[in-house]
Amino acid sequence: MTYLLAAAGLTVLRKMGVENPARLVAARLDKHAERCPPPSEVPELHVAEVLGRRLGERVRLELAATDTPESVVAARLVLLCARASGVAEPLGFYTVKKFAPGDYQGVGEFLELAVRKLRAAGGGYVSITSGFNLEAVYLALAGWLAGARVVYVDEGGNLFEVPHVEICGLPKELGRFAQFINK
């Protein structure tokens, strides 16, 4: 099966009417499965569905999330809906602490985990369909560093591959990633 790594976006919270994500962080969410929107309305599932259809197989979906209650609950709900709809095999999600613009420690951890996961999976795909947010930008970078294919799906269900970008250098604060460049 094909591996797909995506950032956990917050669209699913709005689609499922979740108003207080902090309350649901430790809750069992199984009862929410009947409220799952169609996969085409959840960006992470939309990519999994279209990619799976294109490849003729189900994809294994893993999510990257920040350590905010909203992101954690969104990741859990996306995976719940992936299982309920059968669109993807949910692998789980991992969280990154202190991921914020200008925090190179959080960004470094995010990149390192994503590159390691992609390399362990033998490449695969990275989705940037969650929108143009910071996580999507860094996931694309991790995908290129790991040799994965960076893709997005538009609202019409068309799959596009973002051309591979050769990474020649990174900010000195992310210098530890030099090991991944041109390998």
Q: Summed up, what is this model?
A:
The chain has 183 residues and is of the alpha/beta class. 38% of the residues lie in helices and 19% in strands. The protein is built from 6 helices and 6 strands; from the N terminus they run βαααβαβαβαββ.
Structure overview:
This protein is α/β, with parallel strands linked by helices. Helix content is 38%, strand content 19%. It has 6 helices and 6 strands. The protein has helices at 11-15, 21-24, 43-55, 69-85, 104-120, 134-146, and strands spanning 2-7, 59-66, 88-96, 125-127, 149-153, 159-161. It has a 6-stranded mixed sheet with strand order 3-2-1-4-5-6, with helices on both faces. The radius of gyration is 16 Å and the shape is globular. The protein starts with a strand and ends in a 22-residue tail after the last strand.
What are the defining features of this structure?
six-stranded mixed beta sheet, 183 residues, globular, single chain, alpha/beta, 6 helices
Give me the secondary-structure topology.
Layout: E1 2-7, H1 11-15, H2 21-24, H3 43-55, E2 59-66, H4 69-85, E3 88-96, H5 104-120, E4 125-127, H6 134-146, E5 149-153, E6 159-161
Parallel strand pairs: 1-2, 1-4, 2-3, 4-5
Antiparallel strand pairs: 5-6
Strand order of the largest sheet: 3-2-1-4-5-6
- Main β-sheet description: 6 strands, mixed
Structural class: alpha/beta
Query: What spatial form do the alpha-carbon principal axes imply?
Result: globular
SSE arrangement, N to C: EHHHEHEHEHEE
